[in-house]
Amino acid sequence: MARVVVEDLTKVFPGPGGGPVRAVERVSLAVEAQECLALVGPSGCGKTTLLRMIAGLEPPTSGSVAIDGQPVNHLAAKDRQVAMVFQHHALYPHLSVYENLAFGLKLRKCPRAEIERRVKAAAETLGLTACLGRRPRELSGGQHQRVALGRALVRQPKVFLLDEPLSNLDAPLRAQLRAEIARWQARLGATAIYVTHDQAEAMMLGRRLAVMKEGVIQQVAEPEAVYRHPANLFVAGFIGFPAMNFFKGRLVPGAGALFFEEQVPAGTPAQPGLVLRLDDTRAARMKDWANQGVILGIRPEHIARRNAVPDASPAQTVEAVVEVVQPMGAETYVSLTGTAQPFVARVPAAGHVRAFERISLVFDMARAHFFDAITERTIG
């Protein structure tokens, strides 16, 4: 399998008013051989455009693509030794599964014995052996998607490009096929770029994540690193569910410590802002930010019921009123008010939280994140 290197890749489309629309902006990215890189971001951020430029289906405005050390900008899509699986996996309805899998190989005039070998191997890998004689109308949604993957697999390309291949399936089937794709990619040692807007899918399938916003790569790192050390406010809010809570305010020194004081927006009904003490380690790192504007970010799973943390500091405890309770089985998502900014906590289901109840919560400030209020870059 091959290494893919993208350098300063840019794509500009003409906008509706004649002005330029920069769909992809100077993206540089290296995907290692046998790696699955998940390209994740909201709809319209340029993920598919980037994938199509790598595939050769969309000419770049500027920049270069190299596969296995060879520049491929001048090559047509059919000559790049890549295979792409699309969101809409249209199969030929009049052909059997075997014929759908073999179709591309026949067009390339592959020998019949080789077609037979590749199709049977792909069918075995994807659990389609019993379906080879069926027509698409006789298949389930998951089997449709496996055939689409199989069409790419039989070509034995250097690189697999997958553009949201599971987005049209229901949740249980998506979960099943995510696991199957992960096993398939690991077993084959395939180089793959997997485009999705689903962060759970990205974190499960990608050895690394590339998080994209408005045509620009925001961060490239392993999933755990992106979750624990987001590069900026956007990445912090996009990765993780429920989303990270954000509070705008400033850092204020006092009594030998450093405190975060939440800014209460003008016109907000009389609600107190958060006042939380930073842990000593964080305070030492952030002393230069004293009296400056920052954004505090904390994930719902890092907010706990006070009775679950009996030795918690009062300076990291907040009183709030439960507004909405969302039971999720083993855990519960709780929407809360009572401070200037509503927030969400994720607590064990055994906590028996009730709507309109007033509860005490502890913010784990050792796991909090801080961002520059102007640049939105991570500062601590």
- Give the CATH class of the largest domain: Alpha Beta
Q: First CA to last CA: what distance?
A: 39 Å
**Given the structure, what is the number of helices?**
9
Mean pLDDT over all positions: 91
CATH superfamily of the largest domain: P-loop containing nucleotide triphosphate hydrolases
- β-sheet strand percentage: 25-35%
The count of DSSP E runs of length 2 or more, i.e. the number of strands, is 20
- Order of strands, main sheet, comes to 6-7-8-3-9-10
Broad structural category: alpha+beta
Describe the 3D structure.
The mean pLDDT is 91. The longest helix has 18 residues, at 171-188. With 380 residues, this protein is an alpha+beta fold. Strand 9 and strand 10 form a beta hairpin. It has 9 helices and 20 strands. The chain has a 6-stranded mixed β-sheet, with helices on both faces. A 5-stranded antiparallel β-sheet has the order 13-12-11-14-20. A 5-stranded antiparallel β-sheet has the order 15-19-16-17-18, with no helix packed on it. The chain has 2 domains: 4-238, Rossmann fold; 245-372, Nucleic acid-binding proteins (OB fold (Dihydrolipoamide Acetyltransferase, E2P)).
